[in-house]
Design brief:
22 helices, 5-stranded antiparallel beta sheet, alpha/beta, Helix Hairpins, disordered C terminus, about 60% helix
Length: about 700
Amino acid sequence: MRINKVILNNFRIYKGKNEIHFSNHDESKNISIIAGQNGFGKTTFLSALVWGFYGRLISDVDEKYKKEIYESGGYKKYAKTILNKDIYNNEKETKIFSVEIELSDVYIPSVPCKNIVIKREFDVNTEKEFVKILIDGFENELTKEVGADLFINDFILPREIAKFFLFDAEKIVSLAEIKTIHEKRKLSKAYSEVLGINKYEKLKKNLESLQIKFRKKSASKKDRNKLEKLQLEAEDTRKLIEINESRIKSNQDEIERLKDLSEEYQEKLIREGNTMTVEDLIRHKKLRDTLKAQSVEIKAKLKELLELAPFAIAGSKTRLLYNQIYAEFQQKQKQIDINFIKTKIETIKEKINNQFETKTIPNDIKNEVIKIISETILEDIGQQKVTVEKILLDLNAEQSNEFFAIYDNLKNSFNVLFKQIVKEERNNRIFLAKTLKKISNAESKEADVLTKKYKTEKAIIDKKIKELTIEQNKLYEEIGALQQKLTTKSKLISELAKRVKLDDLDDKKDKVTSRLIKELNDFIIRYKSEKKFSLQQRIKQELVKLMHKKDFISEVDVVISNDIIDINLIDRNGNIIDKETLSKGEQQLFATALLKSLVDESGIQFPVFIDSPLQKFDKKHSQNIITEFYPSISKQVILFPLLEKELTKKEYDLLLPYVSQTFIIENNDDSSKITECKPNELFNLIENKNNVYTH
């Protein structure tokens, strides 16, 4: 599968129609590059693709979109933020944005297909979303029958695995940071979908449901009643879950309404001249107390420095004092007792005489040796002698060292430190005065009747929002407990259904179904084992290619347990490596190797889009990624680098043999457009376009 063309219309920073065509003439050159400065629309382009495929269902693709929708106050409000700002603020313009994607080489069972066009648009005024799918230029009954979103999910790319093909390389390290069971279960669902395990599990569940229907129909009265009772209880549990989900939705709508009302009261307070909320006032009072405490500390430091100020003021006098103390100190250090040295010399002479008596050495040589030693020692003593004309201070060693420390402080750091503390004191005083003024103004407004009323009403609303949020959390907890209860009931229903007696016809159906379930279960076990082994080998192989640490990863262990798929890295000693101890670059290498392995194992031929490539890699790892990862991960790879930061000229030269097309995102008047350029001219053109990137 390939993407031939993408058209963005009024999608955020892309004002008007922006059309980009991807060529398909050389399979050995599978990489396209779209370069642009931060804020010019690289990530926006990737988000536009995700929205173009999934629309309101993008929250199922990545937590990032789910969070953005929640913070916007729901999908419709989120969608309004997508429309280009100039278009949104211009009353004459039509308030519609859209994304169109043209695909080729798509295989759809029993449907001839050369290309597919997906066009999704959103009307901000009517708050309605429209999707049109054309197969070879015409609408197809299949897309009408199953629905556009289901068609895209089942025949183009499932939402659960889109994150493995459309991703931000800087944030993909999250694959190495999964900790909780909930996170593992959610990611395992995506793994299962990629590896093809999920479709067989679904088929098995469908067969088990069919078998329960056969057995319920043929059950004895006692078992039938028990089975029906359990099914009623299970149905009641499902209804309770639905009620809680409905209450959650209702509460969320109410929370959004109350937030809007709270903002209205805040605007009224601003108009009345009171821009500070109760929370802000409390925060400012805490800041005031902190600044006062800091002021005391700064003044204490200043007082310590002021004790040294007289020495600093004295200047040259302090220097003379230092010279006198140093000279006296040196004289004491180097002063030697001459009589003691002469006694030692005599001792040396005596020892030399005693030694020479046993040797046949002439006296003139012996006397010459003694003379040389005596004169050398006395000469050295004479050179080391320090003379001070007059002892004035006579400080001991401890007192001298204390003064030297003070002098060194005055000479090297006193001036800088003094200026710094004075600056800190001034800044603290100014900031404290501003904070006190804000508090004073806010407290003076408290007496205003209208302001007081608005604040009271806002406090009541904010309290309701807090209470509803607490209730939401409880409802989520109840849903978790009910789902656990439903799972238990379903298991009991399944076990009871196996014990019932069947009619002849249903018995035959049941036997066939049982045989199929057993065969399918055996197949799933074998399939999981094969995928486990295959995935282990692929991940290890990719890590060996990408990492430059030899034998850092000895083995890779894929653990498949019920609905959890976990991936462990084993060191040379057979210990599991805690992925949190890996550097960010190593975590990204692991995530990269995992992505490549999953893509290869899935057999899904879909273009790979990568934002912020090479973000955490050193030169060695970057080279491995360029030569081993990008050329092989997919037949079509689109990179969105920040040049000279995420992709240097040297790295680009390594990548150039695999590059088929390059594009530049240019920005004028806060509006971006994409233009194509020749691959070998990309960096030269960039140097002449200061508005494309920064170093």
